[in-house]
Amino acid sequence: EKGGYEHFMLKEIHEQPKAIQDTLTGRISEDGKHVVFNELDWDQNYANSINQIHIVACGTSWHAGLVGKAVIEKLTRIPVNVEIASEYRYADPIVSKDTLIVVITQSGETADTMAALREMKKRGNRVLAITNVVGSSAAREADDVLFTWAGPEISVASTKAYTTQLIVFYLFALFLAEKRNTCDSQTIADIVAALRQLPELAEKSLESAPIVQQFAQQYADKEDAFFIGRGLDFSVSLEGSLKLKEISYIHAEAYAAGELKHGTLALIVEGIPVIALATQTHLLEKTISNIVEVKARDAFVLALAWEDDTQVESTVDEVIRLPRTLDFLAPVVTVIPLQLLAYYASVARGNDVDKPRNLAKSVTVE
Ligand code: F6R
């Protein structure tokens, strides 16, 4: 059942190219220039009426929501909040009838996310669920549903569910941008074309495994690690950090790279592993200056940079080269080496990778 892999997590990491393909299938027009969501029968009037979006989720799904916010805001200029479900449900959120609620949950059963869904429906808001499980509570109770089609995810640590959630957010943002006319058709066609390349690029990103494995083995006895990045790289840093903590039990923190000097630099000491995500070209100079700051404190820096990078390499100890796509789509290829890092660190420490202590796959208690 593990298809020759030692753990479900490794199998599911490797299933990502196919999962991404399955998520895209049927959602791109024949001419390859538009997004089609047959499952959303939204007319122009409804699409135009949305004046605010609240994305509500827990854990890894919340991290996907952070990327969703950036992507939707960039393409549609609709203001988006990303909320942690266990906070949101008690926060008396400020919404109007034109606020769209998007809940995102792999299992479709997470208690806090479901409570938020029910509360917002009761208030009369339209709720869209992004979920992986057909027939789940979220799928049944939401007004609209977009499935991620990742296939069953067995490992407690979420991998292919996250990447397919990202794909759904890209598609959804493009769909809204087309309906609301906030993007020119060439930009939309270019992004759609780049999305179609992602299964192949995810496959290439998996080729980072040997470097990642070596790094993980070398640093498996450390008790702390930092992940830094700016913009979308920061959102993915949060996910990389959670994954590492969750299954290797190494304490990790993700920092917006520019925040380090606001209290954290003292913790950057000799030999501490810092994983620096450096894919956002418009922020690269700033990220590099943050890398230089941690290098000055003798951290060991592993960077994730584009395959054609010429700037990051000279400032770090080791580089993982990512297959080139649009900066905007970077999270899909960047997260894969980070999943592998958590995986190999967990294996090196002799942990039960697929069933980390004290965690359940679907959290149906509050
Ligand atoms: C982390 C992980 C959890 C889940 C969270 C939400 O690897 O799996 O953080 O993402 O419990 O679960 P869903 O998406 O099922 O609502």
TrEMBL record:
Keywords: Aminotransferase, Cytoplasm, Glutamine amidotransferase, Repeat, Transferase. It comes from the Bacteria. Its main location: cytoplasm. The active site is at residue 361. Residues 42-182, 215-356 form the SIS domain. It is an enzyme of class 2 (transferase). It is found in: Cytoplasm. One of its GO terms (molecular function) is glutamine-fructose-6-phosphate transaminase (isomerizing) activity. Its EC number is 2.6.1.16. Catalyzes the first step in hexosamine metabolism, converting fructose-6P into glucosamine-6P using glutamine as a nitrogen source. This is Glutamine--fructose-6-phosphate aminotransferase [isomerizing]. The gene is glmS.
